[in-house]
Design brief:
With 405 residues, this protein is α+β, with helices and mostly antiparallel strands. Helices cover 19% and strands 33% of the residues. The protein is globular. The protein binds the ligand Nc1nc2c(c(=O)[nH]1)N[C@H]1C(S)=C(S)[C@@H](COP(=O)(O)O)O[C@H]1N2 and molybdenum atom.
Length: 405
């Protein structure tokens, strides 16, 4: 496939947008018999060892094919989505410094080696998911701008690093400290200005330890290997249970403050608004935690199936708070009138997704497969969700169109 066709598919113009949305960008890719097309799309990330469907290369925005995503509970880095707002900075771990300042007794800089030496090592398996996961489904209601994500910007990795709480205790907190800002060294071009990506979390949420899982960690490793450049090398935040945007990559600065970060990606994005009006943006609360969600990963959208028993498989994510577990996943072959309970995968931990599968019978009458999940906090995935301007937190029942002969 030529570069121009590639661009057309991943950056649809307005005219083709609805058509694309209706087909579902992922559906086109995953359901196509043109394997040459898939290979050429993957080729863009091959140099980095990635096997992803690329939405844009600079900045890099890419997600795995859903069938790859659920091959294992731990997501290999090659299948782990990349979501960046600016080109990936190439940083030298030897000279890189992380500055800690604001309402702290001892503002200072740390090299990565100093962080590793000074603070106890910690690690945790945590699912990261983009607030824009499944955005393309919001676009079916009304087009939403931004990367038209399918259900692939999610992954479950082992992160290793240090607890933010240990670092903050070491520099000492001053009276009035209430929020911790994270600032990257990347350079995002935004409305004619160049700004870093940043965000913040309430201090109280950053200082706690959930059993073995720190509420916020500065991570150096993903799946026991140094972070790949696209994932934030040499150090990134990982904030379990929160939308991916709070896990700032290429972490250059930590600021302790009495108020939340004024960074655009905290104050002016990642909120549920329906109109682009300042009053609405200002009044809306920032999104921290992600809600319950699930998706069917196989069969793929537009799959052609034979009548009989098929295996449906996917992931289910409990809401992003401590002690939430997926307790039930149900699949429907008739649009939600009757449900079959899926079998849950053996691995289930706090802040992690759960894989599931169900063997169900399909007939030529079956046109759609549907999934919904439930967690032990009483949360159930809703049948529909309210549209929002930026297309965040889409978590309605996931539907996959199929044809059966
Ligand atoms: N510096 C920086 N950090 C960032 C981003 C970014 O664009 N720049 N994107 C955020 C968003 S929106 C998500 S979903 C996660 C994605 O992490 P990943 O690319 O490692 O999967 O990183 C977050 N951290
Ligand atoms: Mo994101």
């Amino acid at each position: 496939m030529s570069k121009s066709q590639y661009t057309e598919i991943h950056q649809p113009d307005r005219r083709s947008f609805l058509e694309m949305a209706t087909l579902g960008v992922l559906g086109v890719v995953a359901g196509t018999s043109e394997t040459a097309f898939i290979r050429s799309v993957f080729a863009d990330t091959a140099s980095s060892g990635k096997e992803l469907i690329v939405h844009s290369t600079s900045p890099m925005n890419a997600e795995p094919a859903l069938k790859d995503l659920v091959q294992s509970w731990i997501t290999p880095v090659k299948y782990f989505y990349v979501r960046s707002h600016a080109p990936t900075p190439q940083l030298d771990i030897g000279t890189f410094r992380i500055r800690v300042e604001g309402l702290v007794d001892k503002p200072r800089e740390f090299s990565v080696a100093e962080l590793k030496e000074r603070f106890p090592a910690t690690s945790a398996v945590v699912t990261m998911t983009c607030a824009g996961n499944r955005r393309s489904e919001h676009s079916l209601t009304k087009p939403v701008s931004g990367v038209q994500w399918g259900a692939g910007p999610i992954g479950n990795a082992k992160w290793s690093g240090i607890a933010l709480a240990d670092l903050l205790q070491d520099v000492g907190l001053k009276a009035g400290a209430n929020h911790v800002w994270f600032e990257s060294v990347d350079r995002v071009e935004k409305d004619g200005e160049v700004i870093p990506f940043g965000g913040s979390v309430p201090l109280q949420l950053a200082m706690i330890q959930y059993g073995a899982v720190p509420a916020a960690m500065a991570a150096f490793e993903m799946n026991d290997a140094p972070l790949a450049a696209d994932h934030g090398f040499p150090v990134r935040m990982v904030v379990p249970g929160m939308i991916g945007a709070r896990s700032v990559k290429w972490l250059g600065k930590i600021v302790v403050s009495d108020r939340p970060s004024p960074n655009h990606y905290f104050a002016g994005a990642y909120k549920l608004v329906t109109e682009d009006r300042d009053e609405e943006w200002d009044a809306a609360l920032p999104i921290y935690h992600f809600p319950i969600n699930s998706a069917i990963c196989t069969p793929a959208e537009n799959a052609k199936l034979k009548s009989g028993t098929i295996r449906v498989a996917g992931y289910a994510l409990p809401g992003g708070v401590i002690c939430r577990k997926i307790t039930k996943v149900e699949v429907s072959m008739d649009g939600g009138q009757h449900w079959t309970q899926a079998e849950l995968g053996p691995d289930s931990r706090d802040f992690c997704w759960r894989l599931w599968h169900a063997d169900v019978r399909v007939t030529p009458k079956t046109t759609q497969l549907v999934v919904r999940a439930f967690d032990n906090g009483g949360a159930a995935q809703p049948e529909t969700v309210k549209w929002n301007l930026k297309g965040y937190l889409y978590n309605a029942w996931h539907r996959v169109g199929v044809s059966v002969t």
